[in-house]
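task queued by scheduler; priority normal; single chain, no ligands, no partner chains; default sampling; output format set to structure tokens
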Amino acid sequence: MSLSSVQSTLSTLKSCQTDIGACMDMVSDVALGIVEAQGMDNSPALKKLEEMIMECSRLDREINCFVESVDEMTAQVRNEPPEAMVHLRNSVKERFTELMAGVTDADLQRHSKVVAFKDSVRKYAMQAGQTAAENEEEELDEDIAVTQSQTNFICPLTQVEMVNPVKNKKCNHYYDREAVFEMIRARHRNKKKFRCPKVGCGNTDVQESDLELDLVMKRMIQNHKRQTGKT
């Protein structure tokens, strides 16, 4: 076993984490579809989906612990004689077992996408209830409601309706994911900060880590497109 082969394996595992994150987003999206169809946030189907996203959280944590174990153990043998590599596998296994033994259900619950799953389901259930109540209000001005919703769905960067809306955790503004990531990276390549494009916002340094996909907003946009006949 060589250090280069170890690093290659770690790179593969880290790419798997991207797939795990995408899977967790898909589970959340399916959950919102169930809430929309059933109008409730405590169905057996949602419980199954919660179990699935918790399992994804565990897989993600296992990869993190394994990477940490490998990094620690390879750092120890890097400057030692070649024969020290013989014991690397066992050392990594022992350290990984130690780290995983300290992982609790509470740790898995704190995964950002698990938190987002529960928060999205709760918010969407509340919104579904509010929408049903509003539909019963005869005084509702539909033209104003449509105009407001369209405005909320417009990305301040592209000036078109968002596809994958991300929310800025610092200033609570929304942008289309691809557009804002491209702008942030372009500014950083020129060693400049990216300012929130929302008029009047004082957030002068938007980072990719500040942004999170808002599945509730994404479903609202999808529903709006269906209702207005857009594709």
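post-processing summary
- Residues 135-149 have pLDDT under 50 and may be disordered.
- DSSP finds eight helices and three strands in the chain.
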